[in-house]
Q: What sequence folds into this?
């Protein structure tokens, strides 16, 4: 990254829950300058003006999108507006970082991808967990074959609160699990998706759900999400033929636990009539994970991609894959948990 | 319990994994005397003879069943033999304690129930978790309305090892979850059962599975079992409208966590368009749980029922209900996770 | 707090480890405005200028102290300069918030107290833990008699790293324990102090130490501090005759554990020859603790005291008491762990 | 161990808290046969007779000591009787396993050592923790230099309950810590011992205490024991120049945590005026520890030593070293925490 380059001008649309974190990071990075913020709520804008007196604000995102000082637009609105705002920004020639989930439909996601391609702009999705050192370390452990063949993945994201009315708990929490999963699997897509949910607080919005994703080669992923659990859980367990890995994101520093454990069955030609299983219980290793703020890494990556022209780690296709899985959960929910095949 | 009564004579069929624990407990209780043990494996019998020199042994369970000194037979064989041995014992006029799961089919379970009724013998199923102080305390918390309306239950029983060839992981581990669940719900049966499993070690035997049980009134129970998880988990979470309860059986003493937490949605006539949810975060209470060995409590309960003629807490009908759910998981597995309705 | 009042002008001397946190908080509070920062290191000042473009900076703290726009000076230098800078600020008519430990000697602390009294300025010490909701809750539990008579207190603050050369581990970490202790005990001072330490990395600076404080009435407090422990520990255990309380500051939310446990000995006239002890094991309660940032509460309290003229919770006398205990540990260390009596 | 050898005859004196565990183990081992039990309390003897109908009992230990069928005597009485009973057994030509602490005074311990030497009998002390796989693994980690130079050891054994009137909390709990420590250090004895205690329940018996042991070469060991702590703690932390090790005996399986962490100070000729410390934070390793019952290992070791004539791991000298440290704590307590030098 050249030191001489002028900082990129950033506009942020949406100053609700997540927007302020993005603003803070782009404000602190040397390669960017936050130029303008948009939100429908003037109170939020006023609060932002107090924190960042030098930044312009507007309640009209179209004005922001046309701002000549702005090189890149960050879309942190509710998901229903992602496509509209993202498209407007791309059409105005801006690079776009859109929060997760990327869009409400895969069709919208494809439209953004096409527009970005046509305009030759960077389109990146804010799958922030893919920028954590924990997920990167998981991926390197997977990629170097440490776990052997993957048997199954068990992911839980449970929480009390942060209810939303615009989306159900799957659309709210599972994008994290899905983006982590698909990242770890190198972009491999599930073949089928099943989802079962239940609504207790708002009868129109599922607040707890369990999902099963099946992949080629027998790999299964179980994903459970809830807004109603007493204890916060954010955990992904990866069970392989050679070793097993727990990624517990609640732990402040000891997030990854690599278990040198496995089970071996009898040789395949045997009858399974006896008990010839071998259990291997070895050491546990807790690798050192650095503490960089992932959102800062994500923001820096966005700037780097703009400057260098390289494809983001979490590009539009990555966002689309997550949206496709989310869409499938909607269909499965409405079909009583039936397995939905993903388009090839 | 009268002190003068002669100790009841006990015969135990099956001296494998669980049998020795039963033998030890009936040996130590004052109200019983272990008279005879049966097993097909003479080595096991020899080992038992060393520990209990005064006890008779046989490789032929029918001989045990006819032993006049024996009042009650404990069936701790593999599940496939439960019905046969239990029936023979009942027909010989013995009381019967049969290990869980009660039988391989609900038809077998019904046959045992009928025979016990006809002979007026005690028939009890070894759902040992129902005799823990933890489950009893859970039940009293539920029964006094502390949790409000139950929203959902989330149960996990994960483990590395103890692979079996005669049954899959559901039949091996989920009887615990099902018996706990049905006990807590006061015998309420699920309306529908869904099960999805996968086999990684032995292609004919599922080693990981996730299940969903739905009940009248919107209650859902998620149950997950695995023989392949790196970390032992035995946990049941009960989420109610007023409070939430975690029963973590791995903790040595602090097993129950009662969370004074809840979420309230907007009044029903509102549009849900806004965010009017109320979260209540209160104290956590960890009730004191005594440390009695549940198997001893179970064994004592069996003796008490024989002496008093009262119906066991875990009688044949309780065993049957668990077997019915297990049967339904088999059907659901074979129908690709379809929802199986239980017979009314 | 009047809304119309102009924000108080704040100057901060020292932009090292802790200073930036203070700056951030006074920047965000509505009742204050950060006017000027002083540090000997220009790089740090440059970094602060980037974050707060509107703030003046200087390498000469005397200039800051004379700045007419400044009402109050925050002293966040190394402890050796606390007295000098604090005194200069008070003499210039400024209110003073000085970091902990207040000064290097009790004589210096008394000089600050006298000067503040003479000038009628607020003098407050940054004992930040006294502003946590956890310590406040502990204090209310103690004050309402829940624990009964206090038997002993066991405090540990263990850590890897943050070695310093200007002070030993006691002066670095134990001010937290001492200020918490003395706060909880309502300002009660220890009668005697013993300290044993050892130096492993820098032979002139103790990096691990254990201390015993004895109070009137038989209460004992054990305090252990280390820069060399593999696992971070920040825990205070309060054992009373009726209940026991653990304050574990490492836990993100469940910081306080109130144990309904106690031991009762035999009546006093008995011979103690037998075993007539009674153990009571009851429930554990984990009270809900809010998550307010204590430094913000502290900063707000400082502003409130300036505006209202009331005496700070952590006033100069509170700072002095902590310094007296620290001085005693120095003497005890140099006398091989001898008990040092505190001046009455 | 020869299979043909007749089992050794074992007599156990003392059937209180710990005795029954020893009886059970010697009963189960093939190399031994429990011949006779002695206790002053007939109720205890009756209970033992129920569990082990083939075993003789007596209220007169001298009768047991003279029993010809007995080869070895296990002394599990209160510590005040250890010397008397042990001596009588040795004089009767029996091998002796005496519980910890070995005796009430070092003089008594020496008398036992002398008698055993004179009679050429095995004298072993029941330092059971030295037979755990955890302590053995700790020792092998220390011995192979993994930790580098040992800086300090921090040991805590905290508990609620099990109050005793015959000994204080140091004599009750610290023998474990001292035997572990001295084992890990290969028999190295401390040079000085300091102890500070307090009595809250029984004014004549300390129920909480903190001790400091100093060794040649700058190593320090802190040991804290309590009968009054709400939460059970059994932990030993070993801090070395290269790595650090936590031995947490409360954890059911993950007892040892090896931290690849260290601090390096500036080179010695520097002035320490700056901050040139280097912190190294690496992985954590949790070695696999097997689950053998240590008391069984201890009992087997006793039998092996009798059969082979080899010196026990925990011989009389090992018991004496622990008693010497205990005696020093008594002196230090009575001298207000003064450092007591151990005899060379």
A:
């Amino acid at each position: 990254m050249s030191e001489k380059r002028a900082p990129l001008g950033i506009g942020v649309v949406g100053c609700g829950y997540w927007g302020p974190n993005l603003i803070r990071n782009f404000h602190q990075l040397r390669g960017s300058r936050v130029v303008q913020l948009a939100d429908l709520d003037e109170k939020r804008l006023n609060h932002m003006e107090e924190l960042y007196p030098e930044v312009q604000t507007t309640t009209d995102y179209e004005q922001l999108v046309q701002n000549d000082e702005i090189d890149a637009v960050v879309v942190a609105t509710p998901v229903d507006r992602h496509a509209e705002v993202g498209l407007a920004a791309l059409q105005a020639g801006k690079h776009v970082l859109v929060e997760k989930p990327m869009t409400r439909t895969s069709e919208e996601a494809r439209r953004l991808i096409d527009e970005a391609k046509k305009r030759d702009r960077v389109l990146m999705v804010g799958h922030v967990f893919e920028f954590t050192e924990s997920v990167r370390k998981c991926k390197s452990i997977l990629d170097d074959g440490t776990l052997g063949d993957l048997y199954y993945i068990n992911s839980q994201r449970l929480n009390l609160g942060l209810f939303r009315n615009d989306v159900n708990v799957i659309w709210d929490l599972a994008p994290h699990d899905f983006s982590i999963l698909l990242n770890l699997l190198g972009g491999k897509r599930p073949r089928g998706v099943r989802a079962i949910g239940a609504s207790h607080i708002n009868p129109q919005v599922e607040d707890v759900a369990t999902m099963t994703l099946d992949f080629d080669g027998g790999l299964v992923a179980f994903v459970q999400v809830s807004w109603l659990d007493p204890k916060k859980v954010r955990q992904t367990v990866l069970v392989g033929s050679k070793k097993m890995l727990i990624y517990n994101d609640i732990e402040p520093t000891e997030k990854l636990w690599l278990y040198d454990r496995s089970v071996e069955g009898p040789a395949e030609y045997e009858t399974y009539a006896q008990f010839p299983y071998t259990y291997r219980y070895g050491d546990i290793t807790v690798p050192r994970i650095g503490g960089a703020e992932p959102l800062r890494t994500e923001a820096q990556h966005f700037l780097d991609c703009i400057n260098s022209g390289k494809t983001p780690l979490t590009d539009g296709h990555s966002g689309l894959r997550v949206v496709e899985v989310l869409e499938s959960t909607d269909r499965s929910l409405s079909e009583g948990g039936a397995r939905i095949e993903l388009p090839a």
In short: Confidence is low (pLDDT under 50) at residues 269-273 of chain B. The radius of gyration of chain B is 22 Å.
